[in-house]
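@channel anyone free to eyeball this complex?
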Amino acid sequence: MTTLILAEHDNAALLGATARAVLAALEIGAPIHVLVAGHNATGIAQSAAKLEGVEKVLLIDHESLAHGAPEPVSEAVVAVAAAYSHLGAPATTYGKSIMPRVAALLGVMQVSEITKVLSAHSFERPVYAGAAIETVEATADKIVFTVRASAFDAVGEGGSAPVETVEFTPTMRTSRFVGRESAGGGGPDLASAKIVVSGGRALGSAEQFNAIIQPLAEKLGAAIGASRAAVDAGYAPNDWQVGQTGKVVAPDLYIAVGISGAIQHLAGMKNSKVIVAIDKDPDAPIFAVADYGLVADIFEAVPELTKAL
Amino acid sequence: MKILVPVKRVLDANVAVRVKPDGTGVDLTNLRMSMNPFDEIAVEEAARLKEAGIVQTVTAVSIGPAQATDTLRAALAMGADDAILVKADGPVEPLAVAKILKALVETHQPDLVIMGKQAIDGDSGQVAQMLSALLGWPQATFASKVEMNGSIVRVTREVDGGLETIEMDLPAVISTDLRLNNPRRASLPSVMQAKKKPLEEIDAASLGVALEPTLRIASTLPPPGRKPGSRVESVSELIDKLKNEARVI
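replying in thread with the prediction:
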């Protein structure tokens, strides 16, 4: 048994979700190799080689892989798959686009978004937006899986694995990269931040969202999140959305401001270690999951909190 | 141009999910079932492409029990021209769904397949990618904008960290994200009309795809609950609790 983890990167740096997927792989109990599929990605392979628990890094360097197009990346994974019993990746938009293709090309099912490893063949994963937890047993000779990064800590960086280059030529029809628009913000990454401050529809406008949420997030060094209602209303960009269809986060501290707590939102944050809810409606469902609930006018309480910290 | 839109019948998004006490699954008895919301977005997008004169035929397909006919009628009422029910009684895994869809693609020859990025019951998010891989067609997951230009489709995708734009030559597979469109509510006349549109039934077994699940669901349990929290009366009490009780700031 050996596990292959597909590294997530933006062709400039290794992204943090990879180290979390490696921790999930450690719990499987087999030796771990990491595959870096990219273009001019030697530096990324060297970063992956430092991850603790990694025995070898495979580097597939080809221009078709420069923007992470799922068609050639999945082909690259399949090209080396013969040596592995387990093939996994973080369940980010990158991993989610690639790994089901790998599974289909290998003729097996994928076990999606595992949150716990029970054994090499048994995993827990949430279904129905987290309203139920399934224990899934996979018996195929290849197990393809994605890892919900927020459910695992990251491994450290004390390792020094060898890097091996693998030749690769893609054959499949592929999508073509046109451009990328980053939401920006410059703050910590939402999915891996220790503290998240999220705003909801009660903020009333994009201006007030920024005026109330941003100073608190800055003071705490927190990432900013938003409810689906706030995103739909245009107060915050798409990729700040926390919930079933947005990002799933589990920071040490989650502060929900003016968020009522629809089940889709709770699915994205209820595994946070400490949850604070501030809202003026005492019956808001968010208070049912909050460790500390403050029923107050957010436009007074949040600036007061920011000032007092 | 032809579009194939797969739709799944799932527990309605507004119904509270109850796990069966014996751990064998989620209780669906006598509960309201509806079209998977992401699939509704896919049907809407296909209907709009037809209304814009870019697409001639929209075919909806569902794999499931006889009751999935209701889901197909809903798609027909939203603007699909015809529908196919692939009858299968037990649960069908994403890989088998993708293989069934591949067989239908080969017989119906659509230029585009558009479907939801995930079903809100299993939350697996696999079928579009698997179908694309099995067909050897390019894919665009998590679409928030679709622009057709002859034999090329340009798709804006919702990805971590922002938006990505890609282009694909047809035929291709697209999966829809939340903000692609707001699905219409079918009018009463379209609901009546939908009853007269063609709906073909075929047996899943006739497509030569193995339906036996390959993953075993050992148990389905409610998530561990959070211990009840407390109310604080003021901002200063909140700061005190976060510093001295929870020790997170």
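from a first look: Chain A touches chain B through 86 residues (CB under 8 Å).
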